[in-house]
What we know:
The complex is a heterotrimer. By secondary structure, chain A is α+β, with helices and mostly antiparallel strands. Chain A has a domain at about 55-150: Alpha-Beta Plaits (2-Layer Sandwich). Chain A is built from 5 helices and 7 strands. In chain A, a hairpin with a 5-residue loop joins strand 3 and strand 4 (about 95-105). In chain A, about 10% of the residues are buried. By secondary structure, chain C is mostly helical. Chain C has a domain at about 1-85: NADH-ubiquinone/plastoquinone oxidoreductase chain 6, subunit NuoJ (Four Helix Bundle (Hemerythrin (Met), subunit A), Up-down Bundle), CATH 1.20.120. The N and C termini of chain C lie far apart (about 65 Å). The interface of B and C includes residues 145 and 148 of B.
Amino acid sequence: MSGNYFSGLFKGVKSLLVGMGETWKELWTKKVTAEYPENRKTTLFVSDRWRATLTMPHDENNEHACTSCKVCETNCPNGTIQVIQKVIETEEGKKKKVLDRYLYDLGMCTFCNLCVLTCPSDAIVFSKDFENATFTRDRLKEQLNKEGSKLREKKKEVKPEAEKSAPEAE
Amino acid sequence: MNYSQPLELSHVTAWLDEVLRGAMPEFWALLIEYVLIGVVLLTLYAVLALILIYAERKITAFFQSRLGPNRVGKWGIVQSVADMVKILIKEIIYVKKVDKVLFYVAPFFMIVASMLTFGAIPFGQGLQVVDFNIGVFYVLAVSSLGIIGVLLAGWSSNNKYSMVGAMRSGAQFVSYELSAGLALMTMVVLSGTMQLSEIVESQRYCWNLFNGHISAVIAFVIYLISGHAETNRGPFDLPEAESELIAGYHTEYSGLQFGFFYLAEYLNMFIIAAIATTVFLGGWMPIQVKGWDTFNQIMWYIPSYLWFFAKAAVLVFISLWVRWSFPRLRIDQLLNLEWKYLLPINLVNIFVMVLLVLSGLTLTGLFPNVFGN
Amino acid sequence: MAEQIIFYILAAVIATFSIMAVSTKRIIRSATFLLFVLLSVAGLYLILGYQYLMAVQIAVYAGGIMVLFIFAILLTHKPGESAPSKPIAKRLLIALLSVGGLAFCTHIIVHNVSKVYSYSLGTTGSDIKYIGLTMMGTDKYQYLLAFEAISMLILACIIGGIMVARKRK
């Protein structure tokens, strides 16, 4: 009985000291806190799978890939996307429907990714820019296609072949 | 041996006393001095609390590999000032069914008890407000007032969580006060006086902690444990265990009244550290070695209050270290620890100390040339 | 002069809170007011220079007895409960008794005040060393026996506490 008492006491003291040793080591480890607004450009990591807001990538000629087929609009479960078309005349004199405005309401979006999955021409993607807070709800409604942008011509997709043949010609 | 002490605050107080006594009759001079002392103590009380809160938050964060407050000011230094301003302008909410008088009085009990103890602490050479010849006993006596504040707060809140918290706190405080008292009494046996200034003076060349070796170290550890338990901080924080009791006895308090409890908690932590410093670690006395006059002179250049606060800071750090290392005790474990371990050990320990002192086996007794005053 | 002022303040506090302690209907408030009275008495001891007595007063009453009182009240009463008021006949009897007690006490104090004064002059001081020696001494007016009895009592309490704590096994 008394043996138990003292061995228990010393065991207890020893285990407490071991615990304090652990925390002492912890005191000197590198701190893991990420200081958010400052580390935006440096250590901030956002996963590639993160769906922050819908965007439509434009290339350097201010051209996008959207054919305004409205597949995204019909697939959207809660009417977040609104594709507005306009009719233009091509050089050959044909009438053609092209994208006029691509409207996206971030406030309605559930980030289900259906629009991106079903887009036949991969014209839209979810970006990683997560800082989407605004002061009014209206600001959440955005137009994704830039001013004066137009549909990327089909011939650009065959461009890689042209590049391959070019060195041979030399 | 007289050493030069250029930075000592007692020069300022002596000069002030001289000026006041020269300018007006003694009664008024004393009155002004008393008021000044009161103001200085209150300011010190508040400022210390701010520093302690900041230190606690920062050290806590480091123990959890975080950075802690780092937004308000460089390294978040002004954070606790901002928190203080917030708590000062917060509304004090009176719950409808509380016992109004007691609900209002309870926080003052806490703050007055720790203020009274605060006054008896020797902060530095000549920086002690009251120096009773029963110093240690006085400190023990007035610090026991705080528990009444806790009990009244728990009762008057008319809330079961507060009530359970207060009951737990009462049981804890009453039992651990015994250990703390006996541990201090062990040291009183060693130094042969209860007067805090004389206890400090007797540790000029050898701290009590080393002077009484085995016995003193045991008493020191027991005092730190029981003092830590008296302040209701983790791992002994079951009176305010968030997961079971919301906030324990101060659940219903808000604004400045809660601030009083908060302040008293932090200051009690400091007071425990300060008393341990005074009784075990030589108080404000700089480290000195007999015969090394140059070394002693260099040590005396560092003012005594800095020595005091540095030693106390180390003990506060240990208290935080313990707080963030161990999980919370259950109430039966808590009482087991006190009544089955600390108290019997303490009783044996005080007896061992008496034997040590009587047979001259203390360091000052064995080597009077090296350690004796 | 300062001591006089402090004495009158303390006296007023003692008188007020004594009356409040017996006149309030809530028992825990009564206990609190009693505590104020006891603390003010400790203040009186301090004015007289009996620091040891002051510390004992605070430690024993505030730290011990009042905590015990409040604990007992906490365990036996409901918050917000008031004591029922007594019938008038009973109240009159109580009033008579207390006035009688007051008269008796006043009589004793007034007739013995000179004696008490000479007693207090007789003590050589309230120095802790003197008190300690008196406590441990075996001469006339020294208290070794009482001290031993008290320590035995405390030891018995501790052993009892340990026994209660060990019972579960």
